[in-house]
Every structure is written in structure tokens, then in C-alpha cells.
Amino acid sequence: MKVMGEYYKELNRSYDAMKTHKAWTGYRSGIDTWRGPSTGGRVAIVGAGNLNDLNLKSWLDENVDLHLFDADQQAMKNGVDRQAWTGKVAYHQVEFTGLDDKNFFEELSVLMAHQDITGIERFLENTKVEPDWTKESDFDSIIITPIYTQLVLGQVMTMIEHYRLEPHQKRLVPAVLKFMAQLIDQVNSSLLKLLKGGGQCYAWSDILEYHSSHVDFERIACMDQKQLKQLVHDYEKSYGQGIGNYGIANLCSHLAHEKDSHYLTWPFDDKRLMVVELIRGVVTA
């Protein structure tokens, strides 16, 4: 059962890609401005999906050797066509966690169906994550779009609700988050193997989410860089690191990177607004 692979395909088909591409114009423009000069050589885009997160022609030289990685090959092809990219491109259909090949969700479902809380904790602790999704390497640059918050967490929390395990969340949530940290560590390690020595890494992730019913929704949507940085600082001070923050921080631990992150608002849809953290750096030995 390819749970993760099917999840990503359903996600890409859950919205109007053309409408979303137009709606995210300002968001992509902000990423373009942050990026700087265009990128050449051999380039990998990880979590490419419908390619609504970046403008290919702004980011890349026309002669670039472009490789796209995602679970949904059709979405990648649609994104390339939508942006009228005529350069060389290779498509790699991959699932980044490796969990679909380990029967992870089947085994977890059995434990949850029996409401074996101790068994679930032990299973999550002992599951070894070893992503091995590509033999490609020696890229001059990799571009990592928001993937960390899409890695397993949503599916596992949905399963907890499905099996009516909410009364046990005080035990289950810490176990799930600890597993997520291990998963992100391994996913980042596999991603960085794509780069050649001295290769450039660009990455961004959603780290905070606000619903339109939030009292400060409109104010946050208009925040500048300094205000967003303070917003993130205050949130982390009160609640700690989230999945997106952790993914970026862990990635930074492997990079010679800029001291300060960059922040943008991402109007995901009419009802949701994300705050995004962006980093860039050079892979270290």
C-alpha cells in the first residue's frame, strides 16, 4: 500500500493548479527577490509538485541541466508545461521517506486498531528510517520546496483520530514528534547527498499557519521582514520549534549558511496564511 505516494498525488489534485499558480504570483516574486542571481549547471528541485512555488525562468539559466523530484510525475510535467519551460528536464518519481517500502502504515494500523499504546510507542521508536530514493548526485544546486510538514505527520494524526485514540494523545504525540525528528534528520541527509562538494542549497518551509478567523490574520499578512522575524521569535519562545522550523534548523546544521533566515508570508488560499522561513548555504564536508 503506497500511502505516502498516493497522498502526494491527492494533495496535488486537491486544488486548481492554474488558479493557484496565479494566486501565488506575489509569493513567488518574493522568493525570486530573495534568491539573487539565476542558477546554472546541474540543478535538482526537490518536492517539485505542480511547480507553483518558484518561477523556473527567473531561477534558472536556459541551458541548465534540470532534474525534478516528486511523488507525482504528472504534476511535475503539468508544471513544466504551465511555465512553458523549453529547456532540458529529467523527471524522477520518488517518495522521500522510504516508509511506503517498509509497510509502515499497515503495521501501525494494526497496533492502532488494537489500541496498543505501548506497542505504538515502541514501534515508532524502533522504526529505522533509511530513505534510499535516488542514485543521482553531483548537483551544483538543490532547491528544496516546503516538504517537511508533509512528511507523515498529517497521516499519522489522521490515523489517531480515525482509531479514536485522542484520549491517548499525551503519550502518542511526543512519540510521533520524536519519530518525525528522526525522519527529518534522515531525509535531509539523503537530500544533501545530491550535492557535490561546495554545492549550493536553497530551502524554504512553512513554519506557522494562521486561519482567516485569527484576530491578527490581516495584520500578519502585511508584516515586513523585521516584524515576521519577531513573530517567529515570539512564537518559538512560547511554544518551541515546530516541524517546519526543525527541518530548516537541521538542514542548516549541515551547511555553511547565512546567519539570518529570511521570512515571507504565503497566502496559501482564501482562508489560510503561512509564514515561510527561507535559508541558503553551501554544503560542508
The tally of beta strands, per DSSP, is 8
Approximate helicity band: 40-55%
Percent in strands:
15-25%
Rg measurement, Å: 19 Å
Helix and strand element order: HHHEHEHEHHEHHEHHHEEE
Helical/strand content category: alpha/beta
Q: How many helices?
A: 12
Give the biggest beta sheet.
8 strands, mixed
Low-confidence stretches: none
Globally, the shape reads: globular
Straight-line N-to-C gap: 37 Å
Mean pLDDT: 89
SSE topology sketch:
Blueprint: H1 3-12, H2 17-23, H3 25-35, E1 42-46, H4 56-59, E2 65-70, H5 73-82, E3 89-93, H6 104-113, H7 117-126, E4 139-144, H8 153-162, H9 169-192, E5 195-211, H10 217-221, H11 225-239, H12 243-252, E6 255-257, E7 262-266, E8 272-283
Parallel strand pairs: 1-2, 1-4, 2-3, 4-5
Antiparallel strand pairs: 5-8, 6-8, 7-8
Structure in words:
The chain has 285 residues and is α/β, with parallel strands linked by helices. It contains 12 helices and 8 strands. It has helices spanning 3-12, 17-23, 25-35, 56-59, 73-82, 104-113, 117-126, 153-162, 169-192, 217-221, 225-239, 243-252, and strands at 42-46, 65-70, 89-93, 139-144, 195-211, 255-257, 262-266, 272-283. Strands 1, 2, 3, 4, 5, 6, 7 and 8 form an 8-stranded mixed β-sheet that branches. The radius of gyration is 19 Å and the shape is globular.
